[in-house]
Amino acid sequence: MAVKVKKIGLLTSGGDAPGMNAAIRSVVRTAVYHGVKVFGIQRGYEGLIDGEIEEMNARSVTDIIHRGGTILKTARCPAMMTAEGREKAAAVYDALKLDALMVIGGNGSLSGALELSKLGLNCIGIPGTIDLDLDCTEYTIGFDTAVNTGMKAINKIRDTSSSHERCSVVEVMGRHAGFIALWCGISGGAEEVLVPESGEVNRDAIIQLIMENRTKGKSHNMIVVAEGVGGSVQLAKDIEKITGIETRATILGHLQRGGSPTAVDRYHASVMGHEAVRVFLEGAQNRIIVYRDGKHTHVDLEEGLNYRREYDSSIYDITKILAI
Ligand code: F6P
Asked: According to CATH, what is the number of the domain 144-257?
């Protein structure tokens, strides 16, 4: 009797992240190496629903390891929020006789995968988001590149801030989580880092800190704000009005989502992509590939998405000590 050839679908979903291409390359090449057929799905779940799907081979992923973005394109897919949309996606999966769907994306994208798993699909998630806001894993593809982009931007802003003896407010990405802000803040030498996890912003305390720092001989100030806190432009206006110190706000925005991935991102993406195919071949169903305690492993999709990690404020405390 002929052995059934296994087939997987592969998509990237939600906000793109540098390193997604390295993960695509890894999934495709590992699958091909093991004789598994890979179908590349365009534009995330939208392409699954619309049937925008093509078989990939080892050469389909040539020269992409160093490229930002995702060759499969990505989208946020409103249809996946409806039962009808999810049923259409499941029907395409069945029609193609797929044995698994590999989803590279963040929280929302993997939650979509969980919903599809309830319709009988076997979904394997690979964490890809610059925000690092998937609590079940200590690393998500794209984070290191985004932080390095943010830090380099802060370095440049620091030059002009120092020359003009200004206060600079730099807003970095991170919708619900302050990891990018904390890492950019500590690596960029910020005096204050505002993250959504810390609750309400105490504007008066920030202003007092700036004034105190001036009396200590600091001639310019750097404040990093997470997107989830927001209000950078208003904060800059308030600081200038109350202290009289010239203040400028810079919102880095989507700059941090692009660019060639760092070695750290390429490394995690390559190992996670490989791991996703490996666990699939072992017969695992509905898993998320995670990085924990220095190792790449996998957890149940639903348990992983429900897992909550405590916010560790000790890194914030370090930024404060280093900013004296
Ligand atoms: O992918 C994560 C993220 O970059 C968040 O930091 C940000 O809030 C969001 O995506 C922006 O999404 P969009 O590109 O859809 O505007």
From this structure: 3.40.50.460
